[in-house]
């Protein structure tokens, strides 16, 4: 067949243009030199609805594998609390994440999957990771530069396991310690929580103000949570109703998000709780109008675990409605986390029938891609083997030990000022160490450690307080240890003094709610058995202030150590006087639970120890 010159010329030009355009489009989103917004636009324009919805789904690792991720174009995978690979070692984490990633990289558009985990006090699910004090203790340090370094260490240890995304920091403003998640909150005082959002700079690095940003492969994407009002629920009941005017909601619970957004936080997680009776997961006003509109948040909004499922409850549970309400409220990525087929089919039909507008889907995917591009995930989708060397190393543990030292709050020291009891002598002849919490890594770490709710057992590596005491004292000093001594034991022991370490069992959300806030019976018995017989320092290991007023007179000295994590030597550094106490209460210490909620600034304020309280030993020539 003979073609005219004109036709041949036309075909040649058209082909050139077409292929140039095609290659150009492909290059644009794969080319890291092209600005992020152009890459987002180029990629989004090529995506089908199924590919878009895939990006919006986050599934749990237990239902994930490379073929599921490939087939359903899954955009993200998470570890639920305590969901770890069978062998809990950094290498095994890396292999798992990479194998999931291989599925994503074999899809048509090769959009990498984003793996996320709750690393809330260090990389707490990974065996052998450095475990830091929970946020309540970090609030007592008032040290922005320290929390930044903690963020940096956490990011490195996450990257050592191939993970580029953490569901942290929790910027809850806990207004009632009866809430079981109170220890995840830096403070009851919004302005202190605002300062502590500097941890985001440590996790992600410092970028252009107000834009999601992750500074390369040694950093991770962060997530401010739980938007909004999680710490303000009635009686501290987890995921319950926060009853407040909009003005107070902003003033108390929303302000930390101003800072998190300004510092470039990549993602924000929605709270299970309700605001004035409306589930946050369905609150279009607070998510779309306020967070994305007024606050100009440019990263993506993620649901909590099965958070959208709770929008409707049996007998009126209706998953279709839950999907409709949550996506139209403005949630971009959903922790499905199991039934991805159900989510996909529901959202697909809701879009096809016009109940969810395509521009809402595009907004969600644009935000998810923006985060993935800005964190360099397309350039470096796989785990970096060389980061294994950062995992649980001494330098990281030193940061945690420093954090423990600075988080301790001295609440009583001697019967009066002229007779201080601390610092303790390292040269005592005999020391009695007693209490349930003296020799347990699991108890001093608390919830969100290896498993979701935590464990009283030695579930990971670390130094217990007992071990730290044995290491700190002089060679000839005898350290006697009994977890639950009976009456008379301390007197017979002829110890110079006793260190009694008691506190709460480990717990996390839900199970940690507590309406009485008493020291558990076994610990209370130990205080009552030991302290009248031998002068004692009581160290409380707890996720919040507990009722102590009735027992305070028995104690010679009293230290709140919160949930210090794996580095017990941070405690002995201070009680033996190598370092000064610098911690100040991040919360009000109430007298009795019937005062609750009671927070700094309240008109009626009659605490046992006020917000900001904390004694010094006044040791000379020693610095923190
Ligand atoms: C991946 O998971 C799916 C769904 O559970 C299962 O059908 C499939 O066999 C799994 N594939 C592999 C390779 O394990
Ligand atoms: C709050 O808790 C009460 C009592 O447990 C329960 O009946 C109610 O449904 C909860 N409200 C919300 C909004 O979760
Ligand atoms: C469930 O919700 C969807 C979306 O609002 C609605 O169309 C459907 O009728 C509801 N189903 C039932 C059984 O109420
Ligand atoms: C919505 O999801 C539920 C749960 O998986 C499923 O039973 C139902 O068939 C889905 N509905 C649609 C319209 O896809
Ligand atoms: C702790 O260890 C004990 C004894 O080995 C065991 O019975 C218990 O189940 C463990 N607890 C947890 C929460 O793992
Ligand atoms: C206090 O509440 C906790 C949690 O509900 C419970 O386990 C404990 O037994 C209660 N203690 C007392 C003394 O009532």
UniProtKB/TrEMBL annotation:
<keyword id="KW-0732">Signal</keyword>
<protein>
    <recommendedName>
        <fullName>beta-glucosidase</fullName>
        <ecNumber>3.2.1.21</ecNumber>
    </recommendedName>
</protein>
<feature type="domain" description="Glycoside hydrolase family 3 N-terminal">
    <location>
        <begin position="48"/>
        <end position="371"/>
    </location>
</feature>
<keyword id="KW-0326">Glycosidase</keyword>
<dbReference type="InterPro" id="IPR036962">
    <property type="entry name" value="Glyco_hydro_3_N_sf"/>
</dbReference>
<dbReference type="Pfam" id="PF00933">
    <property type="entry name" value="Glyco_hydro_3"/>
</dbReference>
<dbReference type="InterPro" id="IPR002772">
    <property type="entry name" value="Glyco_hydro_3_C"/>
</dbReference>
<dbReference type="InterPro" id="IPR017853">
    <property type="entry name" value="GH"/>
</dbReference>
<dbReference type="InterPro" id="IPR051915">
    <property type="entry name" value="Cellulose_Degrad_GH3"/>
</dbReference>
<keyword id="KW-0378">Hydrolase</keyword>
<feature type="domain" description="Glycoside hydrolase family 3 C-terminal">
    <location>
        <begin position="408"/>
        <end position="615"/>
    </location>
</feature>
<feature type="signal peptide">
    <location>
        <begin position="1"/>
        <end position="25"/>
    </location>
</feature>
<dbReference type="InterPro" id="IPR019800">
    <property type="entry name" value="Glyco_hydro_3_AS"/>
</dbReference>
<dbReference type="Pfam" id="PF01915">
    <property type="entry name" value="Glyco_hydro_3_C"/>
</dbReference>
<dbReference type="InterPro" id="IPR036881">
    <property type="entry name" value="Glyco_hydro_3_C_sf"/>
</dbReference>
<dbReference type="InterPro" id="IPR001764">
    <property type="entry name" value="Glyco_hydro_3_N"/>
</dbReference>
<comment type="similarity">
    <text>Belongs to the glycosyl hydrolase 3 family.</text>
</comment>
<dbReference type="GO" id="GO:0008422">
    <property type="term" value="F:beta-glucosidase activity"/>
</dbReference>
